[in-house]
Specification:
Elements (H helix, E strand, L loop, with lengths): L1 H11 L5 H4 L3 H7 L4 E3 L10 H15 L8 H8 L20 H20 L35 H5 L2 E2 L2 H4 L14 H21 L16 H18 L11 H4 L3 E4 L5 E4 L7 H5 L1 E3 L16 E12 L10 E3 L7 H8 L4 E12 L6 E6 L14 E5 L12 E6 L1 H9 L7 E10 L2 E4 L6 E2 L2 E11 L1
Parallel strand pairs: 1-5
Antiparallel strand pairs: 2-12, 3-4, 6-15, 7-12, 8-11, 8-14, 8-15, 9-10, 9-12, 12-13
Helix pairs in contact: 4-6, 6-10, 9-10
The structure holds CU-O-CU linkage (C2O).
């Protein structure tokens, strides 16, 4: 089947112009046969045609006129630019909105078609960086003479001495509750925050491109990071349990975004066009389970309601490099909390409001709920609720962020041991260097205005 596609593309390569690819886009994909397989970069050597092709494409795209929509910098600008006078369709990336997964899927898809063209390899597919399995920056991206390299990264990540902490690459229990979320928007924002945001900061470090939304998509590793985030969307759905795309939310299903194809022609899409990567976009990820088929208009089985349990104002000094502890008394809500914690249909979420840093901190914070005084913070403990990392929203100039953590397990531990105090505490961290977790060296403090504990209740629609 692979050979069929190659043959098809070779014969039709020249005639498959904008007109053919425009209105009959989906016919073309059906004709194209089996999906492209996005490989795990960890399985590729530096001389693999995929990485050679990527390098060839980067050079070719950089050489295009700056006004060509397929130019490397133009494409990065579609994500976000540092420019005060952005070009058409620039600064479009969706962060801390309901469109994070969908917009980035569309963006990668059209970008991949452009790279495929300029790679000279009709079978080119974007590799993913499975950081959970390999937390070092993939070796071919660390070769100084390569187009896959940039000096604009944390020097330890670029030297190979540095790696991502396990807290930052986790998306399942025990270290992360991302995949425990049954509703799309909660799972999406949990994944966006960590691993997504925190890995941006880990790779970019104090001043590197990946730390800055305005520069991130200039780094060739950006797209492999995002391919993995996109793969997580598939993997989350594959967990089942009623997990579903928000196919009945018409605000979500009808949102239109513009991109450019490999011929420079404008292409528009809505989330309904991209629910099923293999069937609609003709790609899948090496090793992923069967993709779950979704369609717009379907009513998800779960309905979610949120009620505030407790509001906690934050003290004045912002969160910095030192341990930061906010006392929380549960005394007034204890009976209610005990009820909630014994109901399998209810969860308690911790929300941090008004989160803002003056610039990308280049550090992340382990967040705990209920960690007893004098007990050392360990991400393996039940009091660990997740990693705080800022990217885009939450950085001055991009608005304040709202961050959520699942505090159910931590509060259960507090209540079961007869406690009525659930301090929220923060410990700044850097990356791992030569096997050692470094403390954080934040380039900026983080202000939080208040915390709120929410009860999430789910019921069948
Ligand atoms: Cu829109 Cu990881 O960035």
């Amino acid at each position: 089947m692979k050979t069929n596609r190659r043959g098809f593309l070779t014969t039709l390569g020249v005639t498959a112009s904008a007109t053919l690819l425009g209105p009959s886009l989906f016919d073309f994909k059906l004709l194209a046969g089996t999906p492209f397989v996005r490989p795990d970069v960890g399985t590729l050597t530096a001389t693999d045609p995929i990485l050679i092709g990527y390098s060839t494409a980067i050079a070719a795209m950089q050489a295009l006129p700056a006004t060509d929509v397929r130019n490397w910098t133009y494409q990065a600008g579609i994500h976000y630019s540092p420019s005060a006078m952005p070009m058409t369709d620039w600064d479009m990336c969706q962060h801390a909105t309901h469109f994070f997964w969908a917009w980035h899927r569309m963006y990668l898809y059209w970008w991949e078609r452009i790279v495929r063209k300029y790679s000279g390899n009709p079978n080119w597919a974007l590799p993913y960086w499975n950081w959970t399995a390999e937390p070092h920056l993939p070796a071919p991206f660390r070769v100084v003479s390569s187009h896959l390299y940039t000096s604009q990264r944390d020097p330890n990540m670029n030297s190979g001495a540095g790696s991502l902490p396990a807290t930052d690459t986790a998306y399942t229990l025990p270290m992360s509750s991302d995949f425990s979320n049954l509703d799309y928007y909660s799972a999406q924002s949990a994944v966006e925050q960590s691993p997504h945001n925190v890995i941006h900061g880990d790779v970019g470090g104090a001043t590197g491109w990946m730390s800055y939304i305005t520069m991130a998509a200039m780094d060739p590793i950006f797209y492999l990071h995002h391919a993995n985030i996109d793969r997580l969307w598939d993997l989350w759905l594959a967990q089942g349990g009623g997990r579903a795309d928000p196919t009945s939310d018409t605000t979500w299903t009808t949102q239109v975004y513009n991109f450019y194809d490999e011929n420079g022609a404008t292409q528009s899409m809505t989330p309904c066009d991209i629910l099923n990567a293999a069937a609609q976009l003709n790609y899948e990820y090496a090793g992923e389970p069967a993709q779950v088929t979704q369609s717009c208009g379907t009513i998800p089985i779960w309905l979610f309601r949120y009620v505030i349990l407790l509001v906690v104002p934050f003290p004045q000094p912002p969160i910095g490099p030192d341990p930061y502890i906010v006392e929380v008394s549960l005394a007034n809500v204890l009976p209610e909390l005990e009820n909630v914690l014994s109901n399998p249909l209810q969860q308690v979420l911790l929300e941090l409001d008004g989160v803002q840093a003056a610039k990308p901190p280049g550090a992340t914070w382990e967040v705990y709920v209920g960690l007893p005084a004098g007990v050392a913070p360990q991400p393996s403990s039940p009091f660990y609720v997740g990693k705080m990392g800022l990217f885009s929203k939450g950085i001055k100039g991009h608005g304040t962020a709202t961050l959520r953590f699942n505090a159910t397990k931590a509060l259960k531990e507090v209540v079961n041991s007869g406690g009525d105090s659930a301090p929220i505490s923060f410990y700044s961290k850097g990356i791992v260097v030569n096997g050692q977790q470094l403390p954080g060296n934040p380039q900026s403090d983080v202000t939080v205005t208040q915390a709120r504990f929410f009860v999430q209740t789910r019921s069948r629609q």
